[in-house]
UniProtKB/TrEMBL annotation:
Protein name stated in the entry: Two-component response regulator (OmpR family)
GO CC field: cytosol; protein-DNA complex
GO BP annotation list: regulation of DNA-templated transcription
Keyword Transferase among UniProt keywords: no
Keywords: DNA-binding, Phosphoprotein, Plasmid, Transcription, Transcription regulation, Two-component regulatory system
Pfam families in UniProt: Response_reg (PF00072), Trans_reg_C (PF00486)
Domain Response regulatory residues, every copy: 2-116
Origin superkingdom: Bacteria
Source organism phylogeny: Bacteria, Pseudomonadati, Pseudomonadota, Alphaproteobacteria, Rhodospirillales
Organism: Azospirillum lipoferum (strain 4B)
Length: 224
């Protein structure tokens, strides 16, 4: 999952980026509204964490531009304003959620998980797929009750496949979602991560098929 953090307070941004990357997310950070606008026009993100008070274009204006372009990327607004009217304005403008500063990073994590879960049609962080138990909050994966140890990026790759069952995902798309801009990598790295995931998920209901020339498709086998 790839997240854009738009925050001009460097200490706070560093803390958020470090925390989310530790959880296996690919995270890009910019401190200016104009830079954020440029990135959002050309890069695919699954979630945007957006401060209101920014140099260049402020967060509310940026959110408005995003929604007028019919970009439905989930947006979590970060604001120091706790007034009800401000919250109502943000939600009416198209924000999916908001969090009031100062906040606990654990709450931010939970709100991020909830927005990403909703965008993939998952009602709960704990979901069963055949004989696979997937818990995004606890970072837990089990196959037939057996814990499966996955690295951070392997966990996010599994989350992507489970959120797009039956859909072909290209290597380029997977790379965009798993790596941030300051983590350049080659396409064969995706092949390596898919190979590791297949090996670790042996015996599960999920099959990851290679679609030659297109990418990969994950499916839950019938009757499992």
């Amino acid at each position: 999952m790839r997240i854009l953090v738009v925050e001009d307070t460097e200490d706070l941004a560093d803390a958020i980026v470090h925390r989310l990357r530790k959880l296996g997310y690919a995270v890009d950070w910019v401190a200016d509204g104009h830079e954020a606008e440029e990135l959002l026009r050309r890069e695919p993100y699954q979630l945007v964490l957006l401060d209101i008070m920014l140099p260049g274009i402020d967060g509310q204006a940026l959110l408005g531009q995003l929604r007028r372009r019919r970009n439905a990327t989930p947006v979590l607004m970060m604001t120091a304003r706790s007034q009800v009217d401000v919250k109502i304005d943000l939600l009416d403008l198209g924000a999916d959620d908001f969090i009031v500063k100062p906040f606990d990073l654990r709450e931010l994590e939970a709100r991020c998980r909830a927005l990403l879960r909703r965008s993939h049609g998952m009602a709960s962080s704990r979901t069963q797929f055949g004989n696979i138990l997937f818990d995004a909050a606890a970072k837990l994966v089990e196959v037939d009750g057996r814990p499966v140890e996955l690295g951070g990026r392997e966990f996010r790759l599994l989350e992507l496949f489970l959120g797009h069952l039956g859909a072909v995902m290209s290597k380029e798309d997977l790379m965009d979602r798993l790596f941030s801009l300051d983590q350049p990598t080659a396409l064969n790295a995706i092949e390596l991560y898919v190979s590791r995931l297949r090996r670790k998920m042996q015996g599960s209901s999920m099959e990851i098929r290679t679609v030659r020339g297109l990418g990969y498709v994950a499916e839950i086998r019938n009757g499992e």
